[in-house]
Amino acid sequence: MTIKPLIILPDPLLRQVSAPIERVDAELEQLIDDMLETMYEAPGIGLAAIQVGVPRRLLVIDLAKEGEEPAPLVYINPEIIKSSDERSVYEEGCLSIPDYYAEVERPASITVKSIGRDGKETVTEADGLLATCLQHEIDHLNGVLFIDHISRLKREMVIKRFTKAARQKI
């Protein structure tokens, strides 16, 4: 397994819409393993393939708490097929926007259709943190960042800060 470098704001790749995955093969299995390793190392609870520079519709999640056995979840070509009218607010962060957190309001529960690591179609009913995490990561696959759900003023300040930081690294 390989820890992959994370794509950080303002990299335009983060705004790219990811392409569907055609088949589960050895290359995809390796990418899944690398993404899980990268997510655990970061550390984070979710990671979309685009965040490691691969514009494909794949995400991994693990909501196990520290000290618990890892419980990785893999979603290939995930699609939200149902959202509740009820809303919930969570403070979100993102490995591609390090050390920035904001409260984001999203549907409280969702239903997601995807393909599992085994190549079989699955349907996941999610609420709470899993629903929020799935929505956050699926947004990545569509070129949307969690800061797109906050006020324009706050979003512009965050983008300006990360753009300035990126220029200073050059």
Automatic annotation (TrEMBL):
Entry keywords, A to Z: Hydrolase, Iron, Metal-binding, Protein biosynthesis
GO BP annotations listed: translation
Reaction catalysis annotation: N-terminal N-formyl-L-methionyl-[peptide] + H2O = N-terminal L-methionyl-[peptide] + formate
Pfam family membership, one: Pep_deformylase
Binding site for Fe cation: 94, 136, 140
Enzyme nomenclature, EC number: 3.5.1.88
Keyword Repeat: no
Enzyme superclass (EC): hydrolase
Active site per the UniProt annotation: 137
Entry keyword annotation includes Iron: yes
Molecular functions per Gene Ontology: metal ion binding; peptide deformylase activity
Gene3D superfamilies according to UniProt: Peptide deformylase
Cofactor: Fe(2+)
CC cofactor note: Binds 1 Fe(2+) ion.
Purpose of the protein: Removes the formyl group from the N-terminal Met of newly synthesized proteins. Requires at least a dipeptide for an efficient rate of reaction. N-terminal L-methionine is a prerequisite for activity but the enzyme has broad specificity at other positions.
Family: Belongs to the polypeptide deformylase family.
UniProt name for this protein: Peptide deformylase
Source organism per UniProt: Agrobacterium albertimagni AOL15
Gene: def
